[in-house]
Write a structure and sequence with these properties.
This protein is of the alpha+beta class and 208 residues long. The chain has one domain (48-202). The chain contains 2 helices and 9 strands, in the order ααβββββββββ. It has helices spanning 2-15, 28-82; strands at 84-87, 104-108, 110-114, 124-129, 134-138, 147-148, 154-164, 175-185, 192-202. Strands 1-3-4-5-6 form a 5-stranded antiparallel β-sheet, covered by helices on one side. It has a 4-stranded antiparallel β-sheet with strand order 2-7-8-9, with helices on one face. Strand 4 (124-129) and strand 5 form a beta hairpin. The protein starts with a helix and ends in a 6-residue tail after the last strand.
Length: 208
């Protein structure tokens, strides 16, 4: 009986043009879950990428601001080094040594000097403006025409010029030590960095 049934099944399968095959695939629920997981992963990855791009832009903007400060300070040091006849005693600095009235060993908020190349030219003045918190420069010999040389994003909290050796009668070559403290931040961002910089400029012209 079983052999007859098997023969009949074989004959049926031979005459059937397409054999019925049972294959297992993804169900609709599995596809929905997989798509949802893929979407979540993509959202997280895109969010992380955008955060990295934004952080990079903020870092570049902050670096640009700090470069502005470095260029301004380097220019100041170079001008002071090449200049002569330093005077910082007239900027509210207490005259400790009457023989050296232009010295300011305790620190002054401004300094004036003769620029290099033309001694008859008006004196240059560098000063710290405590109102605008910026470093200013004047080439007319008066602070009335001083203009800021640091970016608005740079906020200087304190800046002092320590000046010694301005008299030819002493044995010290004129020297200026600049100490500056403050903070800087890029526009449109909340990122800020603090800085504390010290620079020294020794007069290149021999004080004989």
């Amino acid at each position: 009986m079983e052999e007859k049934t098997q023969k009949k099944a074989n004959q049926t399968s031979r005459h059937t043009p397409y054999a019925i095959r049972h294959t297992r695939g993804f169900t609709l629920i599995e596809m929905i879950v997989a798509t949802a997981l893929f979407a979540v992963v993509m959202v997280v990855c895109v969010g992380a990428l955008l955060s990295l791009v934004s952080a990079n832009r903020k870092a570049q903007a902050l670096q640009s601001v700090m470069n502005n400060l470095n260029i301004a300070l380097d220019g100041t040091v170079r001008s002071v080094r090449m200049g002569s006849d330093y005077d910082a005693g007239s900027a509210g600095c207490t005259v400790i040594d009457p023989l050296n009235p232009h010295d300011c060993a305790e620190g002054s908020t401004q300094i004036s000097f003769k620029p290099f190349g033309d001694p008859l030219q008006s004196r240059w003045v560098y000063r710290f403006n405590s109102t605008t918190h910026q470093l200013e420069r004047s080439t007319t010999g008066s602070i009335a025409g001083a203009v800021p040389i640091t970016a608005p994003e740079v906020s200087i909290d304190s800046m002092l010029f320590y000046v010694i050796g301005t008299q030819q009668s002493d044995t010290v070559q004129p020297k200026v030590v600049i100490v500056i403290k403050g903070s800087a931040g890029a526009s449109g961002t909340t990122a800020h960095t603090t800085f504390h910089i010290q620079a020294t400029a020794v007069q290149r012209v021999l004080d004989l």
